[in-house]
Amino acid sequence: SALNIYFFYSLLYNSKNIKKHYEDIIILGCVFLLSLIVFFSIRETTFLNIFSSVISSTSNSGISFFKPPENFYLFFVFLTIIGGSLISNSAGLKFIRIYILFKSTVIELFKLVTPNIVIDQRILKTENKINNENLNSSFLIFICFFISIFILSSILALDRLNFENSFKLSILTITNTANSSLYGLDEVNFSNLLTSSKLSIILFMVLGKIELLSLFLIIKKVIRRN
After folding, report:
1. What residues pair up with 129 in beta bridges, in sequence order?
2. Which of 115, 111, 38, 39 is nearest to 78 (CA)?
3. How many Å apart are CA 147 and CA 141, to the nearest integer?
4. What sections of the chain are H helices per DSSP?
5. Is residue 65 classed as helix, strand or coil in its secondary structure?
6. What is the pLDDT of residues 17-53, one digit of tens each?
7. Which of 136, 172, 173, 178 has the smallest number of CB atoms closer than 10 Å to its CB?
8. What is the average per-residue pLDDT within 84-94?
9. What predicted TM-score, i.e. pTM, was given to this entire model?
10. In contact, 120 and 32? CB cutoff 8 Å
11. Which letter does DSSP use for residue 92 in this model?
12. Distance CA 98, CA 78 (A)
């Protein structure tokens, strides 16, 4: 679910188009590299378990075959925030949006230092370039995502959860990721939560899937029609 479905089609039936899937190839490379780093850092389980856990977090499934050390909980939570390819079933910010924000920041810093410098503004060596439209949408989704985390974690913090668990559970809810031992939340009992917390979790799971910015655009169009 972290990869573009057309990537598999190109891989099997149209190998010429595989060059257009830089995003998916980079995601696969990063997953393998991160798995190696975590494997040599932990060394308490097999590489296959770690590799599947990194894929699980990136694709927002939450499936885990081992319990990592506590200092790796936030690392796997961070992977759920990134998510996968833009055209995929994963939630999160998506890799390409983070890339656009990061590259735009680097470009602006270089312009301040050397105003006459010419910088390649292409997105992952494709014909598409960074423009105000995709930059603004990426930034707005970034802001909406963390506003959602702040709101939901504040609601959950009023319940029986401590700040750390409410923060992690908020991220997993918005990214539609199952809580598991991979994030240190396998012991959370949802039946003990208040009704308001349960309803908030359900609501933000939906908002996380359709994205808060999309909801704002729908409301805006409805208001304009009226």
Report:
1. 122
2. 38
3. 10
4. 5-12, 22-42, 47-58, 73-82, 95-113, 132-157, 163-174, 195-210, 212-225
5. coil
6. 777 788 888 999 999 999 999 999 988 888 999 999 9
7. 136
8. 86
9. 0.85
10. no
11. S
12. 12
